[in-house]
């Protein structure tokens, strides 16, 4: 039986949602979605920097229209969700325009060297966040925080001390997402001071797998599956070049959403070290469904557990098949790939992390001390335990294992090869 229920909203959250719905009733024209709203979104995004910075519409207009159409047709969004969809589209186009302006005013930015990054990937909920935030403690590595991803040009103007003060100031403020949906702190903690997925900085071509984690975007996701991400990863590289602080630190990045686009990632960053985490497939898909369902409940009052389970299963299969295709392609030869079993990360964390450093051609620090400091500051379940079951999302474990055997068989071969 599908039993998933959305988390209960706090009184503060209920008042925010009620105010937004009242505003939608009073001013419905501000809450329209669909392709017909594309021009209004573009106008908002370019009001300050001009439309010229967006470049050829063929590079971003199809993504914008697909996103808006899917949000309208599939999203089941409440008033807060519609605002979020509008702001996301405006923000990505505005970023695109500012990137163009930055490169025109400072052409040397495009010449800045980007050392081959270490990129942590895998299915949702495979330990990527733990490993990422643990390794981010290494001063030789640089892991971006949210403000660096949302507004890299702003951070680029600051000294290191100024940047840290800005982040500390933001961290002292209440987390807007946690106000709307307090359960998110336990499911996936976030905040201005925590290193975050670089997918937050992607989408300047309106191509971003991360969009479907926060909203129901089935039509957009189907369209995205056939899209070329070369332009999107070129913008990703521009983002890192803008953020360059002259320290020559190596970028440490993380996002499960890189998993289906490893070819574009490797072409953009020759020599990239890809750290691929693997977990029991039922745990991976069920935990990911719980994450998606909880996140989507922030922006929709109509989230169905079985529907999320179906989407998460389909998307996971697509992502893993694409990852296997990459492994078998010539492009994979330009990357270093290390496979990590989630069970090893939990049971033998120091030894496992040292393997990652070796793959990245870095001397490992005192990993035991790093683990102790990390666990003290960010203890597991420190903000609540994430509880879920596959049955909540209509996931039948045996059927899922059979469907995903193409991937789990390959993982068994990869990890045994690493062990030997």
TrEMBL record:
UniProt xrefs under Pfam families: Sulfotransfer_3
Gene3D superfamilies attached to this UniProt entry: P-loop containing nucleotide triphosphate hydrolases
Coiled coil regions in record: none
Protein name: Sulfotransferase
Gene source species: Gordonia rubripertincta
């Amino acid at each position: 039986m599908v039993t998933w229920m959305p988390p209960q909203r706090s009184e503060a959250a209920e008042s925010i949602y009620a105010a937004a719905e009242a505003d939608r009733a009073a001013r419905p024209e501000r809450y329209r979605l669909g392709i017909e709203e594309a021009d209004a979104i573009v106008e908002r995004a370019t009001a300050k920097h001009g439309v010229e910075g967006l470049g050829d519409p063929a590079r971003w207009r199809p993504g914008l229209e697909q996103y808006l159409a899917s949000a309208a047709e599939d999203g089941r969004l409440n008033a807060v969700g519609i605002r979020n969809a509008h702001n996301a589209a405006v923000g990505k186009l505005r970023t695109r325009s500012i990137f163009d302006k930055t490169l025109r005013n400072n052409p040397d930015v495009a010449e800045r060297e980007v050392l081959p990054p270490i990129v942590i990937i895998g299915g949702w909920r495979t330990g990527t966040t733990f490993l990422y935030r643990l390794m981010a403690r290494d001063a030789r590595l640089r892991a971006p925080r949210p403000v660096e991803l949302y507004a890299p040009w702003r951070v680029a103007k600051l000294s290191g001390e100024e940047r840290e003060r800005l982040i500390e100031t933001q961290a002292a403020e209440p987390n807007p997402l946690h106000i709307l949906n307090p359960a998110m702190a336990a499911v996936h903690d976030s905040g201005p001071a925590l290193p975050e997925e670089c997918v937050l900085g992607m989408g300047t071509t309106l191509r971003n797998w991360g969009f479907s984690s926060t909203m129901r975007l089935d039509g957009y996701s189907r369209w995205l599956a056939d899209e070329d991400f070369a332009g999107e990863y070129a913008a990703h590289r521009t983002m890192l070049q803008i953020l360059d602080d002259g320290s020559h630190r190596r970028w440490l990045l993380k996002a499960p959403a890189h998993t289906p686009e490893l070819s574009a990632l490797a072409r953009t960053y020759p020599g990239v070290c890809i750290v691929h985490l693997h977990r029991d497939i039922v745990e991976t898909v069920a935990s990911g469904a719980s994450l998606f369902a909880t996140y989507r409940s922030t922006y929709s009052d109509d989230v169905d557990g079985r529907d999320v389970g179906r989407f998460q299963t389909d998307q996971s299969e697509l992502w893993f098949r694409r990852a296997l295709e990459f492994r078998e392609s010539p492009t994979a030869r330009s990357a270093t790939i290390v496979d990590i079993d989630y069970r090893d990360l939990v049971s033998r964390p120091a030894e496992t992390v040292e393997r990652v450093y070796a793959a990245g051609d870095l001397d490992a620090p005192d990993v035991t001390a790093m683990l102790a400091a990390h666990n003290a500051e960010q203890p597991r379940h420190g903000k609540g335990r994430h509880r879920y079951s596959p049955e909540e999302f209509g996931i039948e474990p045996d059927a899922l294992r059979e469907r995903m055997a193409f991937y789990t068989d390959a993982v068994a071969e990869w990890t045994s090869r690493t062990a030997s």
